[in-house]
Design goal:
This protein is of the alpha/beta class. It has two domains: about 100 residues, no CATH class; about 270 residues, 3-Layer(aba) Sandwich (Rossmann fold), CATH 3.40.50.150. It has 16 helices and eleven strands. The protein has a seven-stranded mixed β-sheet with strand order 7-6-5-8-9-11-10, with helices on both faces. A four-stranded mixed β-sheet has the order 2-1-3-4. β5, α9 and β6 form a beta-alpha-beta unit.
């Protein structure tokens, strides 16, 4: 049987996807909005050496398998499928096909794959390397993907047709309102990225804001932008671990997209550290991606773990809320914004597609493919409720007065 037909049978003959293979075979309806193309025997060699998600990802990152058309459309067309779900006869046929490729075309993982974890998990040095791996790619690349806001976290859409920039502004403003920011207050923003929250708090609320990040490139970009906007008297972004911030007595702390890098065992210390940096009555807004529940492991799949977020972990909402509550915070509000992250990722995917040639020239085809695949897959995961985005607001209470309004005023 032709190669294209073999793969079509595995995933389903009625998919709105066209399969093409280097042997000239095609299967599926023509004129589809997306097509899967096996460009060389090396694609099958990758799949033979690592069956499933990782082998397919390696083949795509290395350019031996191509997705023509819209990546999100292609991924959305595939039903969730495990090797055990494939009928035995088809598994035998597929194994027979792949066995020869593994023998005659040995392959190595792409150079972009992060496999060499060194040092104690979530130590300062290992966290620094993991963050640098993902964020110290190229500020220019991120500008093309993220847009002018340079904000790499979930936006908040007041309406579905809002622009990405409007939604990122609304996200920062929602955080500021939840934290009760007012002129003259102080804010610590941990995992500050390119300084979006720090800039917003200083520019729109007159707040003295300090941000910290483990990415040198992010810190350099933020410092330049702060100076350019004339906000150096209010705003600062440091290349620093949040655990090393010496100041205390902040009125508010924001953690936007950092908790995913902390690790479950470190959560108690993480929340205690943030509590100790707040004054009594000060608020913490924790914004992070979570699993829907705690019924499966916290670590993401092999592709995300090796190509996107080394050492990343997604906890359940209950884990985040419980650890926050048990380590110095009275939890006052919580909400799930997962649909907003799907919309955010749709905007980033569109930006990458629009700037594809420039992005490939900047960071290379393999790394650009990693971002194309992971952002489209993440969009789909948020839509399907495979992952969520939760904002949890807590206050450092003195055991009585919380300094919170009787009803939310944001």
């Amino acid at each position: 049987m032709a190669l294209a037909a073999v793969f079509a049978r595995v995933f389903g003959d009625d998919l709105p996807i066209e399969f093409r293979a280097y042997d000239g075979s095609r299967h599926g309806p023509s004129g589809c909005s997306a097509a899967i193309v096996l460009k060389s025997p090396l694609a099958l060699a990758h799949l033979a050496s690592a069956p499933g998600e990782l082998g397919l990802a390696r083949a795509y990152v290395n350019g031996h398998l191509e997705v023509r058309g819209d990546m999100y459309t292609a991924l959305a067309a595939f039903p969730p499928i495990e090797v055990a779900d494939i009928p035995l006869g088809q598994r035998i046929e597929l194994a027979a096909r792949l066995g020869a490729y593994r023998m005659w075309w040995p392959v190595s993982p792409p150079a972009e794959e992060n496999r060499a974890a060194r040092g104690r998990r979530h130590s300062k040095s290992r966290d620094s390397r993991s963050v640098s791996y993902h964020y110290d790619v190229s500020n220019q690349f991120y500008e093309w993907v993220l847009g002018p806001s340079m904000t790499y976290t979930c936006a908040v859409f007041e309406r579905e047709d809002a622009t990405l920039e409007q939604a990122q502004h609304e996200k920062h403003d929602l955080v500021a309102r939840k934290l009760g920011l007012r002129e003259g207050m102080s804010l610590l923003d941990i995992g500050a990225g390119w300084g979006g929250m720090v800039l917003h708090a200083a520019e729109h609320y007159g707040v003295r804001a300090i941000g910290v990040t483990l990415s040198e490139e992010q810190a350099d970009w933020a410092r330049h932008t702060i100076a350019e906007r004339g906000l150096s008297h209010l705003a600062e972004v440091r290349y620093q671990d949040y655990r090393d911030v010496p100041e205390t007595g902040f009125d508010a702390v924001s953690s936007i997209g950092l908790t995913e890098h902390i690790g479950r065992d470190q959560l108690p210390g993480y929340f205690r550290s943030l509590r100790d940096r707040l004054r009594v009555g000060g608020r913490l807004l924790n914004h992070c991606i979570t699993r829907p529940d705690g019924s499966y492991p916290a670590r993401p799949g092999k592709f995300i773990r090796r190509y996107v977020f080394p050492d990343g972990e997604l906890e359940s909402p209950a884990e985040i809320l419980g650890r926050m509550n048990d380590n110095g915070f009275e939890v006052r509000h919580e909400e799930n914004l997962r649909e907003h992250y799907a919309l955010t990722l749709a905007g980033w995917c569109a930006n990458l597609d629009r700037n594809w040639r420039k992005a490939v020239a900047e960071v290379g085809p393999a790394r650009a493919r990693v971002w194309r695949l992971y952002m489209a897959a993440s969009r789909l995961a948020f839509e399907r409720d495979d992952i969520q985005l939760h904002q949890t607001l807590g206050v450092r209470s003195d055991g009585g007065a919380s300094s919170m309004p009787l009803r939310p005023d944001w």
